[in-house]
Specification:
The complex is a heterotrimer of chains A (about 325), B (about 325) and C (about 325). With about 325 residues, chain A is α/β, with parallel strands linked by helices. Helices cover about 30% and strands about 25% of the residues of chain A. In chain A, the strands form two sheets. An eight-stranded mixed sheet of chain A has the order 6-7-8-3-9-10-12-11, sandwiched between helices. In chain A, a hairpin with a 2-residue loop joins strand 9 and strand 10. In chain B, helix 2 packs across helix 3. Chain B is elongated and about 75 Å long.
């Protein structure tokens, strides 16, 4: 399998420092209610270093967004963080009181949501919505905030005159740029991008990704990048994790993981995308058997001894330096 | 573009699915009934309603004879022989209230059923045929919605020969439009579903599609509009009769209140004359509203007090 | 402005439909109501006035189409015939002398109910499961279950008769004449309390529940999560982001709700002998005063339509998306 050639060439990626900015440990999120609860994320641990781009891949419903929302403490009932810790620059995010949390949000971690149309308030102008950030966090006057908002729009290549526009008056790509401009407004340390280009067509997708790359190089923030598009992710990220059923099943440097996926789910996920060039290959579905309480969904093809994981997905084990995989047996296959 | 594309997912729980109760109708209805019985509000409403229906049916046994008969001195406060007192004319208030339930419930439910039936027809036709039919029917519906109800009721009732039939007819004419609008919207969304498209393609008859494919899937909405129409019917009947536009010789909660007002029950402090009938109207309407509330909660989980398994994990 | 023009056209159409209904009722209804009316009140009328009424109800022998055209023309120029119960005052004069009180009562009650109801709805949805969310809805639904006029009777009996806190009938006491003096205004205000309170009590539940339900849907929107992620203050998110959007359906429903409130106001007036058009409507019903009934119907319909149009203008101000539509 090759990296699809229609994408822009890999951006230049400096090796990031290993000092973690974000440290998520044993995170568990449960969706409760009516006496039974569903686990949205289970025992998820990962770190993101300064300036690092960390990818989180997996199919819809695997818990990627749950993790992202948990990091900013945006989960609403019935979702609840029931175990684990989230440290940001050494500060305990889960222990912050509402006031600290408000100051922390957006200044330290900003987020680009999946759909720009839905994440912009339809009845406020773009200018009001960007200006909000400055009036809230920097206590700026309205006029000053408007000037800064204009500068931000220019940064993402939009005419500042569009500050007066309402979201519905902009194209999908422009709206996503506006959201990205908002995200970098306070020069956050970490930017979470939850499927930032899903709702856009391929050409616009490329432009937006290029824009994000430029901004990242310029401002040096870390990125938690979430997508189901694994080839796009490999191209952009330094390290990446693959999530399945609320658990991380593989965690490694992006290139290594791409060259040699160790977990059957990772392999399945990669095969789910057709390469645009090269010979035709048959697409395979994801799980080879439905996931039940008796098996993780991959047990039929799993080369390992399943005595441990027959009821659940096993914990991550380090199989080589910096390579983790959730399998009971070791090594490459 | 890909099998993983999250756009093909039903977009998580953002918009409450209008037809949460599945395309398989019989099971959906049974489920609705069962959930209703398990719901405290619905149970309360049902008990109150059954109680009132029983009282209405048993009126001739509990208070035999003509309720309007004058059988004591006027304006007596509640006593052993007249538990709810007597009117200024000397009629027994308990008897009037019990007998009044018969007319009020009859008119209320007749209006509810007839108005809902009309609304279902209009809503279905609008949604199924679309285009011009929809435009015209929507226009008519909106006009009826916009024109203020009470004055319209008054001029209609005033020009028609007085009587219970007139009251029912007039209330149906003024009461169907709101339901039609709700039902049209619902039917339209079901009309757009694949299983309806499939029926159209296989050449099923329009009437069959409307009433066998679409209608069963909106059972809960039909039920809410029906209950809403009954509430409207009972209240509006009372209003009409209170204005003197009903048949003043019929005993109903509305005419009881009309006579209470006319005979100056308020001025003489005879609260027992006007309290029972009004309280009955309110209790029945409240019971219906509670059942309605429960149906809403069951079909729209978002409104429930403690949100139940919104288990759809977001990816 | 296509949205505005389209709606304006619709309102004109609705008004035309009302006029047509009015035209048809006396002409095509079985039971000959008009003869009944004449039989009852002919003796006290002048011949030329009888002629005018015959013309109004189509008892002269002009062709139907001409009657219709004349009728529409008459209505549009404000000629709605002569009142029978307040003979020989023209209907338009009777209504003009009373519509002000109805507007005052309905307007006051409406504004109070809308403002308080929506605020309660916003707060209830914001604190799901809180006191406001669990105690108020059933209470207000219960209050809303009472017929307007019955609640009015209860309020009259309790606060007017028994406790004597507020005056029981009319819009102001005998001995006052309408002017802008403090004494008159406070007297009129005290007469307004009970009728307005009744209407507010019955209608507030609908506003609260409607707002609460749309708020709950709105709070689940992505832009609310985004606003939270931006670290905005809760009050700003609640009002500028959530309520501002949840208000929009409320605004469009306002027009429909208006009809109900007007109806309630009419019945409430009857109980309090409040000198508005509702009270007059009762007199018209009792006196078989068809011209007045029809005049009141048309006037109120026109008022509701105009109010709807104003609401549309507000809606356009509030929702930028309709502006382009």
């Amino acid at each position: 399998m090759t990296v699809p050639s229609h994408r822009t060439a890999s951006p230049h990626r400096p090796v990031p420092s290993r000092e973690p900015v974000l440290d998520v440990r044993n995170l568990r999120v449960e969706y409760g209610g009516d006496g039974r609860s569903v686990v949205g994320a289970d025992n998820v641990s990962f770190t993101i270093g300064a300036g690092e781009i960390f990818g989180l891949a997996g199919e819809s419903g695997c818990g990627k967004s749950t993790v992202a929302n948990a990091v900013m403490r945006l989960l609403k009932p019935p979702a609840q963080i029931t175990a684990g810790s989230i440290l940001f620059d050494g500060r305990d995010v889960l222990a912050m009181d509402p006031r600290e949390l408000r100051a922390f949000r957006w200044r330290e971690i900003a987020m680009v949501f999946q759909s720009a149309m839905n994440s912009l308030n339809p009845v406020l102008t773009i200018g009001e919505q960007i200006g909000d950030i400055f009036t809230t966090h920097e206590r700026m006057r309205k006029r000053r905030a408007r000037a800064r908002s204009g500068e931000l729009l220019e940064l993402v290549g939009i005419d500042p005159a569009r500050l007066k526009a309402y979201p519905h008056q902009l194209s999908g790509g422009m709206r996503q740029r506006v959201v990205i401009a908002m995200a970098v407004a306070l020069k956050p340390t970490l930017l979470i991008m939850d499927e930032p280009t899903t709702a856009l067509d391929v050409v616009v997708q490329q432009e937006i990704m290029a824009q994000i790359g430029d901004l990242q190089r310029e401002l040096g923030f870390s990125v938690l990048f979430i997508t189901h598009d694994i080839s796009l992710m490999v191209e952009l990220s330094h390290r990446m994790g693959v999530m399945y059923g609320g658990r991380l099943v593989e965690l490694a440097a992006a290139k290594e993981l791409f060259a040699q996926p160790l977990h059957p789910y990772t392999q399945a996920l990669m095969n789910a995308f057709p390469p645009l060039t090269g010979p035709r290959v048959e697409l395979t579905g994801l799980a080879d058997t439905p996931r039940t309480e008796h098996g993780c969904g991959f047990h039929a093809h799993c080369p390992d001894d399943r005595s441990d994981c027959s009821t659940n997905i096993p914990d991550l084990r380090e199989v080589a330096a910096g390579r983790f995989v959730a399998r009971t047996g070791g090594g490459a296959r | 573009m890909s099998v993983l594309d999250s756009r093909t997912e039903p977009a998580a729980p953002r918009t409450a699915p209008p037809d949460a109760d599945a395309p398989k109708a019989p099971r959906a209805r049974a489920g609705l009934l069962r959930s209703l019985l398990a719901n405290r509000k619905a149970l309360f409403g049902a008990v109150v309603l059954v109680l009132f229906v029983l009282l209405a049916l048993l009126a001739p046994l509990i208070a035999p004879g003509d309720p309007s008969k004058i059988n004591s001195l006027g304006a007596g406060a509640p006593s052993a022989s007249h538990p709810l007192g007597t009117t200024a004319k000397g009629q027994d208030v308990l008897a009037l209230t019990l007998w009044g339930a018969r007319s009020s419930l009859l008119v209320g439910f007749s209006v509810g059923i007839a108005a809902t039936a009309l609304a279902v027809l209009v809503g279905m036709a609008s949604a199924y045929f679309g285009r011009l039919v929809d435009d015209v029917l929507s226009l008519v519906t909106n006009i009826f919605l916009l024109v203020p109800g009470v004055p319209l009721l008054v001029i209609l009732a005033a020009f028609m020969p007085p009587g219970t039939t007139t009251v029912i007819l007039v209330l149906v004419v003024t009461g169907w439009a709101g339901s039609a609008r709700v039902l049209r919207a619902q039917a339209k969304s079901i009309r757009g579903k694949d299983f309806v498209a499939a029926s159209v393609v296989t050449g099923e008859r329009a009437v069959r599609i409307m009433f066998r494919e679409i209608l069963p899937n909106m059972a809960s909405v039909v039920m809410t509009t029906l209950l809403g129409c009954v509430i409207f019917g009972i209240g509006a009947q009372a209003g009409l009769e209170f204005l003197g536009l009903g048949d003043a010789s019929v005993v109903s909660w509305g005419t009881n209140l009309y006579w209470a007002g006319n005979d100056g029950a308020l001025m003489t402090g005879a609260w027992w004359v006007f309290v029972p009938s009004g309280l009955c109207i309110a209790l029945v309407a409240f019971a219906l509203a509670m059942v309605n509330y429960a149906v809403d909660e069951i079909t729209n989980p978002r409104l429930r007090a403690r949100r139940p398994r919104t288990a759809t994990k977001k990816g | 402005m296509r949205y505005i023009l389209r709606n304006l056209g619709f309102y004109l159409l609705a008004f035309w439909a009302s006029i047509t209904l009015n035209f048809m009722l006396p002409r095509f209804m079985p039971g000959d109501p008009v003869s009944r009316m004449f039989a009852r009140s002919q003796s006290q009328m002048q011949p030329e006035q009888i002629d005018q009424l015959r013309r109004l109800f189509g008892l002269d022998h002009r062709p139907m189409w001409q009657q219709y055209l004349d009728y529409v023309k008459d209505v549009c120029t404000g000629h709605m015939g002569i009142s029978i119960s307040r003979f020989p005052t023209p209907v338009s004069e009777v209504i003009a002398s009373q519509i002000g009180w109805t507007l005052l009562l309905g307007g006051t009650a409406l504004v109070i109910a809308v403002v308080i109801g929506n605020l309660l709805g916003i707060l209830a949805a914001w604190r799901r499961g809180g006191v406001l969310d669990s105690v108020f809805p059933p209470l207000l639904v219960f209050a809303g279950s009472f017929p307007y006029f019955w609640l009015a009777m209860g309020a009259l009996y309790l606060f007017g008769m028994t406790l004597g806190w507020f005056p029981m009938r009319h819009a102001f006491d005998v001995g006052f004449s309408p002017d802008l003096s403090w004494a008159f205004l406070s007297n009129a205000a005290s007469h307004l309390v009970l009728p307005a309170l009744t209407i507010v009590l019955v209608s507030i539940g609908g506003w609260m529940l409607g707002m609460r339900n749309t708020m709950i849907a709105t709070v689940a929107e992505d832009y609310i999560t985004m606003a939270e992620a931006k670290g905005l203050s809760p009050s700003r998110i609640m009002f500028r982001y959530a309520a501002r959007n949840a208000m929009l359906p409320s605004v469009t429903n306002f027009g429909m709700a208006l009809g109900f409130v007007v109806g309630g106001a009419l019945l409430t007036e009857v109980v309090f002998a409040y000198p508005g058009v509702g009270f007059q409507l009762l007199a018209a019903v009792q006196g078989l005063d068809y011209p007045l009934m029809q005049g009141i119907f048309l006037t109120i319909t026109a008022a509701v339509l105009v109010a709807n149009f104003l609401v549309d203008l507000v809606h356009v101000r509030l929702d930028p998306r309709v502006r382009v539509r």
